[in-house]
Amino acid sequence: MVFGNIFTVSAYNTSARAAVVINGETGEILYSQNCDERLPMASTTKIMTALLLCELGGDLKTEIDTTREMVTVEGSSMGLQVGDKVSYHDLLYGMMLSSGNDAANTVAISLGGSISGFARLMNERAQKMGLENTRFVTPSGLDAERHYTTAYELALITKEALANEQFAMAAAAKTARLCYGNPPYNRTLTNHNKLLNMYDDVVGVKTGFTSKSGRCLVSASKKDGKLVIAVTLNDKNDWQDHRNLLDLGLSLIESKVISPKKREYNVCITNGETMNIVVPSATISVTKNSKVTYKIKLPQFIYAPVKQGEAIGSVSYYCNDNLVCELPISATRDIDYKQSKLELFFETFKNLLLNI
């Protein structure tokens, strides 16, 4: 997946081996530094693991019992023990706040049947996104041969994840009050992402570190209707770099309302009436040089009855030929079904025959 417009600024140099800032709505690259180099990404891997949990886990209140295979793993932990009862919800927060490798393994084995089985799901999801330089081997981000991504593709994974409400809530949580164990008991987890406590506009996302990958960090800032995502891989000064990168990204985009030149259309109804509908506008954040286009889909006619608010079409807004958002075009009023004269004749004739 390659976004057409690349609006890069090289005035700021980070301490990272690779870095990128993208527009969180359109995916446009706003800043890049070796952003296509394949590198290990440590626990930022859990962004994909958490996204799959939100997409495949169903009801996050679902509880599972942990096994030795799930919780026997080195590194950071949310404190799971063999035989604990824990919900998918708590596993999500255990990954995003405490960076629990035990949580990631538990999710992987529960949803994928095994670590390798879940890795296949991760790679299938990456392929669905069109990512060509990302490959997953572990759900936690522990070092493994051929486990890598790029700063740019990790930013695109994060963009996809932040569109999921459950993920976004967990990524932005500074603390979480959870209940798990054997028997379950209440405990509080604190997010490792210091940026959440340093700046009000930061809304996530994930830290990571191994001796091989160095310090890895994915952050996101939402301000004045604008969303930017920053990624650094192998960065000794990541906290300061990310504040600078987020500010740079926010300065390069603007939030504006876009709408088609023609907004009102008449749609024919099968009962002989017509309905005047209005195509909704959208508020999106784009760079000043972006090309914004749209496509309107409306049927030639609609079968009655029609209910007010019912979706009868859609409008899709594109930035540099990449889909930004799709909005429904809704019916503006109720329209009842009315019999035609021919239908009324046949119904009358049918009733006469039944009464003979």
Describe this structure in words.
With about 350 residues, the protein is an alpha+beta fold. It folds into two domains: about 240 residues, DD-peptidase/beta-lactamase superfamily (Beta-lactamase), CATH 3.40.710.10; about 70 residues, no CATH class. It contains ten helices and 17 strands. The strands form six sheets. Strands 2-1-9-8-7 form a five-stranded antiparallel sheet, sandwiched between helices. Strands 12-11-15 form a three-stranded mixed sheet, with no helix packed on it. It has a three-stranded antiparallel sheet with strand order 14-16-17, with no helix packed on it. The radius of gyration is 25 Å and the shape is globular.
Secondary-structure topology with pairs:
Blueprint: E1 16-23, E2 29-33, H1 46-56, E3 63-65, H2 68-71, E4 85-87, H3 88-96, H4 101-112, H5 115-128, H6 151-162, H7 165-172, E5 175-181, E6 184-190, H8 195-198, E7 202-210, E8 214-223, E9 226-235, H9 238-252, E10 253-258, E11 264-269, E12 274-278, E13 282-287, E14 292-297, E15 301-302, E16 311-319, E17 322-330, H10 341-354
Parallel strand pairs: 11-15
Antiparallel strand pairs: 1-2, 1-9, 3-4, 5-6, 7-8, 8-9, 10-13, 11-12, 14-16, 16-17
